[in-house]
Design a protein that fits this description.
This protein is α+β, with helices and mostly antiparallel strands. It contains 11 helices and 20 strands.
Length: about 450
């Protein structure tokens, strides 16, 4: 017996559809997005130290890497395993030094045996007579491009700018926290560096991307929208505070950005707003480093200890969860069902069309820092060097990424937003008041001030 299948009822679309009117692609922000050699932003970024590799991944063989649009080779030399960073291609016949041989004095090209010192000096041209004039001339006038490097706590940092402008290697107070374990990690992103960096000054995304969209990737408390406030200090240091109501508690979480690309935040898993916490410190100490215009990589330490994240997350997978809320290696379906930072920022495309954005008041932190980066780029073009991280009168650079949870019960529901904003502002202001103290005195003073703030709020 045949079965009759009825045709579905035809329903004409109704609505104010504007796809055709908006089909033209908006422009990207060329000034901020382009970072290859010779670009204004590229020259700005080259005035700072950047992490470029993890020490544990560099063995006795050279490693080819790309940073700030340059093809480079990282290698160890000498008995002590010192590190050199040079341009990838030999200046003789352009053979790749990725296939070179690491020796006591430097790296030797596989093709014709030219030997280069870690600063790029040509030490030997063995295919030529040692006293031949052409060989002497090329050794005198030619150098392999090379950059200074510093190995520090499992990360390798490089300075890719003019050597006469090389700044002091920055030491942040986070390095000096007692009883802290700092585990180096990396996280690649298939998109422009600005897309990745924006998230640190966007506290609102935590509520939606990491909480309400699929499931809580950090804690239930982060699903609450906070009261926001943004700060700019020392021309290059930006903070975004979010103060949430969690039961009888006020949870103040502070993210920070020190230009051009240093970031810290509160903890990922140590705080959920339900237990008191006084000046807990950052889950990570992190840089967003451009690889080229369309790729970037986060190099960081995940921080573990009483004031940071719990030691059970001190694994590779734990670092990935701290970085973005989910592990990196997931199926396409898992990424759709449970998107994290990489899906949000890579989904914008290799370089987002910035000029098609519609920034809102909650994006004020992004507006502030982008405007300052733009000013620094233009100042450098006019001969003014960009400001380095502010050290003040202390041995290390003061940072503010933190979580504080104070017991502040609701007194007046209609005035609770004002109460939360007041607690958040006073919590951040306390950090600003002790910048010239040493680390221990500063921490003790801030914690004592927070406890007094809590006591005052109860009275």
């Amino acid at each position: 017996m045949s079965r009759v299948v009825s045709e579905p009822e035809l329903v004409e679309p109704v609505g104010d559809f504007r796809g055709h009117q908006q089909a033209a692609t908006a422009d990207i922000d060329e000034e901020l997005a382009r970072i290859v050699p010779g670009t204004p932003c590229g020259e700005y970024l080259r005035r700072f130290w950047h992490p470029v590799f993890m020490t544990g991944e560099l063995d006795d063989l050279p490693k080819a890497i790309k940073i700030l649009g340059e093809e480079l080779v990282l290698f160890r030399y000498g008995n002590a395993g010192k590190i050199g960073l040079v341009h990838k291609y030999c200046p003789h016949r352009r053979a790749s030094l990725e296939y070179g041989r690491c020796e006591d004095r430097g790296i030797r090209c596989c093709y014709h045996g030219w030997l280069f010192a870690p600063d790029g000096e040509i030490l030997e041209t063995p295919g030529e007579s040692a006293d031949a004039k052409p060989a002497q001339e090329v050794r005198d006038r030619t150098r392999l491009g090379a950059y200074p490097v510093i190995e520090f706590r499992g990360l390798i940092f490089a300075y890719l700018g003019p050597i006469e402008s090389m700044p002091k290697f920055p030491i942040f107070d986070t390095y000096e926290l007692p009883d802290i374990t700092m585990r180096p990690y990396k996280a690649p992103y298939k998109c422009n560096w600005i897309q990745v960096l924006d998230a640190i000054m966007d506290p609102v995304h935590t509520t939606f991307l990491h909480s309400q969209n699929s499931h809580p990737q950090f804690s239930e408390g982060m699903s609450e929208l906070g009261e926001l406030k943004f700060y700019e200090r020392h021309e290059n240091h930006f903070l975004g505070s979010s103060t949430r109501r969690v039961g009888d508690n006020a949870w103040v979480r502070v993210n920070e950005l020190i230009l051009p690309n240093f970031t810290q935040a509160g903890s990922a898993f140590a705080a959920d707003g339900t237990e008191q916490r006084y000046f807990g410190r950052s889950a990570f100490t992190r840089w967003v480093v451009p690889v080229d215009d369309e790729n970037s990589i986060a190099y960081a330490w995940a921080n573990f200890g009483e004031r940071c994240d719990p030691p059970e997350y001190n694994t590779r997978e734990g670092c990935e969860l701290i970085e973005q809320g989910e592990i990196l290696d997931r199926t396409a379906e898992e990424k759709q069902r449970y998107p994290a930072d990489s899906e949000a920022v890579e989904g914008m495309g290799p370089i987002t069309t910035h000029k098609g954005e519609h920034l809102m008041p909650t994006d004020r932190g992004i507006s502030l820092y982008r405007r300052r980066v733009r000013r620094c780029i233009r100042d450098l073009a006019d001969g003014k060097p960009p400001p380095q991280p502010h050290c003040g009168g202390t041995s290390s650079i003061r940072t503010y990424g933190q979580d504080t949870v104070l017991r502040v019960p609701v007194k007046s529901p209609e005035n609770d937003r004002a109460c939360l904003m007041d607690v958040g502002a006073k919590t951040v202001d306390l950090q600003f008041g002790f910048e010239d103290s040493d680390n221990t005195d500063r921490d003790n003073a801030i914690i004592a001030g927070l406890k007094q703030l809590e006591a005052d709020a109860k009275s």
